[in-house]
Design a protein that fits this description.
Layout: E1 5-9, H1 14-25, E2 29-34, H2 37-49, E3 54-58, H3 64-78, E4 83-86, H4 102-130, E5 133-138, H5 142-145, H6 151-170, E6 176-183, H7 189-195, H8 198-206, H9 216-227, E7 238-241
Parallel strand pairs: 1-2, 1-4, 2-3, 4-5, 5-6, 6-7
Helix pairs in contact: 1-9, 3-4, 4-6
Length: 248
C-alpha cells in the first residue's frame, strides 16, 4: 500500500478508524472524513504520528455536494484516489417493523444507503478516469441473514450489498474493483448502542460460533487485503468476517 492514496468515510470511530490506522501503518497517504471536526483533526494528527501523510476533510455522506467536494479535495491534495473505504453507517432505531416510522427509515437509509451511493458516485468517476482503483464498502452479516429487531438496519445492509455487486459489474472493464466486507458483531460503539445492555450483548455473542465479538482491527486487515493488488481477481464480492456466524 506504500504511497497509495486512501479515502475513508466514517473514519472517526469503529471499523473506519481501525482501517485508517492499518493503512497508515502500511505506508498509505490517507484522507479521513466524518462530521466531527475536532475528532477528525485529532485522528489526522494521530495518523501523522504513525508516519503517514494524512488529512481530515469534514463531510456529510448524505450530501451530494459534500461527497463531490471530498473526492475533489482528495485529488487536489494527493493527485489521485487509489482506494476508497465507505464505512459511514448508523444502526438506526432498533425495534420491530411495527414500531418503525418514515423518519426512522429515512435516518437509517440516508446514511447507510444514500451515503454509499453518493460516495461511490464520485469515487468511481475519479477511478475510472485514472483507469484503476479499489472500493470496499462496509456491510454487515445482517445484510444477508437478518435478525429480529433490526429490520431497517438489515434492509439498508441488503441494499449496500446489492449496490456493491451492481457497481462492480458496471466498472469491471475499467480497472476498478468494488467489494464489501460483512462483519459480524464487532466491538464498537454501534454494537453497544444496538444491543443496549450487557445481557443483550451477551446473547448476541452466544450466537457467534467463535463465542466472541470481532475487533475493529480484524475487520481492518480484511479491508486492507481486499483493497490491495493481492486481491486483484476479486470484485463484486461480499466477504463475511463474522466468527462463523454466516456458516450456521
Amino acid at each position: 500500500m506504500a504511497n497509495q492514496v486512501v479515502l475513508i468515510t466514517g473514519a472517526l470511530s469503529g471499523i473506519g478508524r481501525a482501517a485508517a490506522l492499518a493503512f497508515a501503518q502500511d505506508g498509505a497517504r490517507i484522507v479521513v472524513s466524518g462530521r466531527r471536526e475536532d475528532a477528525g483533526r485529532a485522528l489526522a494528527m494521530e495518523l501523522r504520528d504513525h508516519g503517514a501523510q494524512a488529512e481530515f476533510i469534514q463531510a456529510d455522506v448524505r450530501r451530494d455536494e459534500d461527497m463531490e467536494k471530498l473526492v475533489g479535495q482528495t485529488i487536489a491534495r494527493f493527485g489521485r484516489v487509489d482506494v476508497a473505504i465507505n464505512s459511514a453507517g448508523t444502526e438506526g432505531q432498533p425495534g420491530p417493523v411495527t414500531e418503525q416510522t418514515a423518519e426512522s427509515y429515512a435516518a437509517t437509509f440516508d446514511t447507510n444507503v444514500l451515503g454509499t451511493v453518493l460516495a461511490m458516485k464520485y469515487e468511481l468517476r475519479a477511478m475510472q478516469k485514472q483507469g484503476q482503483g479499489s472500493i470496499v464498502n462496509v456491510s454487515s452479516t445482517m445484510g444477508h441473514k437478518g435478525g429480529p429487531g433490526a429490520s431497517i438496519y438489515t434492509a439498508s445492509k441488503h441494499a449496500i450489498e446489492g449496490l456493491t455487486k451492481s457497481a462492480a459489474l458496471e466498472v469491471v472493464g475499467s480497472g476498478v474493483r468494488v467489494n464489501a466486507v460483512a462483519p459480524g458483531p464487532v466491538e464498537t460503539e454501534l454494537l453497544n448502542r444496538f444491543t443496549g445492555n450487557a445481557d443483550r450483548k451477551a446473547a448476541l455473542i452466544a450466537g457467534v460460533p467463535m463465542k466472541r465479538v470481532g475487533q475493529p482491527d480484524e475487520i481492518a486487515q480484511a479491508i486492507l487485503f481486499l483493497a490491495s493488488d493481492k486481491a486483484s481477481f476479486i470484485t463484486g464480492q461480499i466477504v463475511a468476517i463474522d466468527g462463523g456466524k454466516s456458516a450456521q
